[in-house]
Amino acid sequence: THSSYMILLGYIQQLCIILVVSYFFFLMIRRPPRSTQSRSSAASDVYKRQVEEYNTPGEGFVLEVKRQSDVEKTCSIVVQRGTIKAGDFVVFGFQSGKIRNMRDDRGQIINEATPGMAVEILGLKELPESGDPIFVVSDEAKSKLIAKRRLERALMDSEDSSMIKGTKLKFQNRRERRKFHSGNKDLIRIKYGEMINIKKEKIQQLLSYNDDKNLETVLKLEKEVDEYQQYIGELIEPDEGGDLLNLVLKAQDKGTLETLNSLVNKVMDSAGATDRKIRIISSTIGTITENEVRIAERFNATIFTMDIFPASEISKDAKDSNVEIRTHRIIYEIIEDLKKMISTEEEPEQVVINQKGQGHILGVFSIKVGKGVSKKVAGMSINKGAFNKKCTYRVLRQGKIIKENLQLCNLKHHKNEVSEIKKGQECGIGFFDYDEFEKGDVVEAYDISVKKK
Asked: Which of 23, 174, 384, 431 has its CA 20 to 30 A from that of 276?
């Protein structure tokens, strides 16, 4: 019995050893290599970072700003982090707004933009400046509060409100800075015009907060605007002479306005000794306003635009005020137009014949116009346009002009005198001082205009 017990205990020990060895062998098989583990961990970390990057509120910066009208305002941005969606509330500079829609680089409406995407934003009531950071916040109240606090902080950090970001004079390069400080009146007007626009925007923004604390700052900004306008007015002398082309420049965005100013300066630099001089009265972005029509009227200026078209009421106002508005889309057209406007050489005139109607003679008839007196009239079919007594006429036979500068004395349809005969109708005609018609002759109605070549 004792020996049997020892044999059984030996079996149990062997079985335990086998189980322990099998368990460790199983663990070795299931455990991945250390290098695979590290790679999986790194990939997992990257994935987590990507998820976090996409799921966070979006941030980016402004590339370009366009103001095609007071209603259509857009800006292009690049998303750097997170996701920006249609309907999000955003903060930029000292302002806030809500994104109504977004368009991708193909012009397609999209609902969201992820890091690396460049999109066009629609629906912002106020526009940022190029280069401004833009970021998403949770709701409208928070966006307005952040914008307000940013502006208040800027005001508190500055002893003078003119030090607010965006209200300093900005120059493209050192040459432009030297030109300004050397007293160039045209450049001074442009730069101070930009300052006036910026300060007016700040005033409107402060007033929108309905906070009495901002009243002192608003009054100070308004005083500065008045001083700038007065200063510019002193630089502009309305009675400076007749050989001067005054321009009010308008464009849809800052980049286009800079291009327009550059083109005007280029034409000025290349002008001849006998050409008229160009003077820029003002240079602003956005739609043409009634105030700018008044300025153009005061200084006998032409409103010169690029990618801006006036509203109907502004066009009527300008026409009534004898103010010319010239709109352009292509840079080449702007240069050619400016060269023509400053040229003092008389342009040759060209006589233009505008055809109003044409018909061919079906038959010739004699009618009595008095005792023993008869006159030939032509029965005709109108092929093109119309005949009336306001036009001038000529008769052609086999392609050659037989008689021209003729005036109608009779225009009849079914024996009734009429004022006009249109294409497809037949009529009888008679001219003053000419009745030598032949069947098959062609009669043309035309008027004459004179224009510059």
From this structure: 174
Q: Count Cα atoms within 13 angstroms, Cβ side, for 157.
A: 9
Separation CA 142–CA 119 (nearest Å)? 24
Contacts (Cβ under 8 Å, ≥6 apart) of 393: 404, 406, 407, 408, 431, 443, 444, 445, 446
Closest CA to 377 of 402, 339, 413, 341: 413
Q: Give CA torsion, residues 58, 59, 65, 70, to 10 deg.
A: 50
Across residues 282-302, what is the average pLDDT?
Answer: 80
Could you tell me which of 405, 404, 408, 428 has the C-alpha nearest to residue 416? 428
Q: Determine the 3-state secondary structure of 155 from DSSP.
A: helix
What predicted TM-score, i.e. pTM, was given to this entire model?
A: 0.36
Mapped onto helix, strand or coil, the DSSP state of residue 278 is strand
Question: What is the residue whose two structure tokens read 């009010």?
Answer: 248
Q: Which amino acid is at 413?
A: H
Share of the chain above pLDDT 90, in %: 11
> Among 77, 185, 187, which residue's Cα sits nearest to residue 131?
77
Give, in order, the Cα–Cα distances in Å from 301 to each of 142, 245, 265, 284, 290: 46, 7, 17, 15, 14
Read off the pLDDT of residues 205-240 as tens digits, 9 standing for 90 and up: 777 777 666 777 777 777 777 666 655 655 554 444
Q: Rounded distance, CA 222 to CA 199, Å?
A: 8
Instruction: Give the list of residues 6+ apart from residue 111 with CB closer than 8 angstroms, or none.
Output: 85, 86, 102
Please name the helix (run of DSSP H) or strand (run of DSSP E) that holds residue 355, with its range, or none. Answer: strand 349-370
Tokens, residue 360:
């061919």
Q: Regarding predicted confidence, which is higher, 121 or 157? A: 121
Q: List, for residues 332-386, the tens digit of each pLDDT value.
A: 788 888 888 887 655 555 557 788 899 999 999 888 766 677 788 899 999 999 9
**Count of CB atoms situated within 10 Å of the CB of 301:** 25
Q: Position of tokens 């003679």?
A: 361
Element (H, E) at 55: helix 34-55
Q: List CB contacts of 252: < 8 A, sequence separation 6 or more.
A: 66, 67, 68, 285, 286, 306, 307, 308
Grouping H, G, I as helix, E, B as strand and the rest as coil, residue 224 is helix
